[in-house]
Amino acid sequence: MTLDFVPRTAILEEIDRQVPDHHLFRFRLPNAFPIAPGQFAELTIPGIGGFAVSTAAFAAGPLFHACIRRIGRVTDALYRLPLGARVGLRGPFGKGFPLEEFLGRDVLLIAGGLGMAPLRALLQALVARRGEIGRLSLLYGAHDPRVILFKDELNALARQGLLDLHYTVDFAAEIPWRIGGIACQVGLLPQLLDTVRLRPERTVAAVCGPPGLYRCVLDELAGFGLAEEAIFASLERRMRCGIGQCCHCAVAGVYVCRDGPVFSLAQLRRMEGAI
Ligand SMILES: Cc1cc2nc3c(=O)[nH]c(=O)nc-3n(C[C@H](O)[C@H](O)[C@H](O)COP(=O)(O)OP(=O)(O)OC[C@H]3O[C@@H](n4cnc5c(N)ncnc54)[C@H](O)[C@@H]3O)c2cc1C
Ligand code: FES
Q1: What is the DSSP string of the chain?
Q2: Is residue 108 over pLDDT 50?
Q3: Which of 45, 64, 122, 236 gets mutated to test ligand 1 (max ligand atoms within 8 A of its CB)?
Q4: Whose CA is nearest to atom 27 of ligand 1?
Q5: Sorting pLDDT into bands at 50, 70 and 90, what band is 3?
Q6: Which atom of ligand 1 has the smallest separation from the CA of 237?
Q7: Residue 179 pLDDT > 80, yes or no?
Q8: Which of 24, 79, 238 maximizes ligand 1 atoms within 8 Å of its Cβ, making it the mutation to test the pocket?
Q9: Is the CB of residue 71 below 6 angstroms from any atom belonging to ligand 1?
Q10: pLDDT above 70 (res 128)
């Protein structure tokens, strides 16, 4: 057994109840947990089970932040834990976003729903190096205005002029909506693409959300003239080992856990059935 299979003990230290059933959890480990934007960990609750979860923060040190949706057996058990409870963490696993390729370029982030969690980590990394990138835009789509994650911090970045921020929701009681002073459209996420001024030849894009989002947005970005090597998406597959040994996550001979979960569109084109 390699050390990758041995969970480290982490303490549940803080719960930020962002929106119902989408809480941001902070865990403390005994040592540094150097997880990069786009990478993930396997979180286990003793006696219950485990699941894969992305880092939702760009943070050094012995902390792990994850925005977790209560969806099934193990996440439900996590939501019932008190502060101070012990969980297991394995990782960090996978290849994250290639940050160096974002420097010196315009950056377009596109988040659908909970896809905002991994993109929050990337956004924090980019803001930390804000002087080294051009335009930084975020298009964020959610079901309705009440379930938009991290809106206070996103709005604050927009107000400081660090981020060009656009929201859209599937449903809203009134039109137009404003979220903390930021305009919010009602409609599908790809429609927001018309609202950003793209310089395709110098833009890198990162997309994170449900599979349906990838099917329409990735081709559309390529259609705008972005290079397929400069469009990145994070795939979600059911995972077990997280280290390329159980074949659970394999797509077209590629292990999503080890070779991804972040892939360029150029790579995805060669992985039949990936999107
Ligand atoms: C690389 C990676 C990163 C992830 N990051 C996050 C994250 O940041 N936050 C978060 O809340 N969740 C994340 N997930 C999803 C999380 O691992 C699953 O939701 C997990 O199964 C929840 O465990 P559970 O026992 O509560 O639910 P389960 O009982 O396992 O599943 C509940 C329902 O979700 C469906 N489901 C579970 N996993 C997947 C999947 N991978 N793809 C499609 N459908 C699935 C099941 O079919 C079932 O209907 C990530 C998954 C991967 C692979
Ligand atoms: S989860 Fe085991 S090979 Fe990817």
Answers
A1: --GGGSPEEEEEEEEEEEETTEEEEEEE-SS---PPTT-EEEEEETTTEEEEEE--S---SSEEEEEEE--SHHHHHHHTPPTT-EEEEEEEESB---GGGGTTSEEEEEEEGGGHHHHHHHHHHHHHTGGGSS-EEEEEEESSGGG-TTHHHHHHHHHTTS-EEEEEES--SSSSEEETTEEEEES-GGGGGGGS---GGGEEEEEES-HHHHHHHHHHHHHHT--GGGEEEE-----SSSSSSS-TTEETTEEHHHH-BEEEHHHHHTSTT--
A2: yes
A3: 236
A4: 72
A5: low
A6: 41
A7: no
A8: 238
A9: yes
A10: yes
Residue with CA closest to ligand 1 atom 32? 72
- pLDDT at position 1, please? 42
Q: Give, in order, the Cα–Cα distances in Å from 1 to each of 5, 9, 88, 240, 241.
A: 7, 18, 17, 15, 12
Reported pTM: 0.94
213 versus 4: which is more confidently predicted?
213
> Beta strand 40-45 with 136-142: parallel, antiparallel or unpaired?
unpaired
Task: Please state the rounded mean pLDDT for residues 117-142.
Answer: 97
Q: Give per-residue pLDDT as tens, 85-107.
A: 999 999 999 999 999 999 999 99
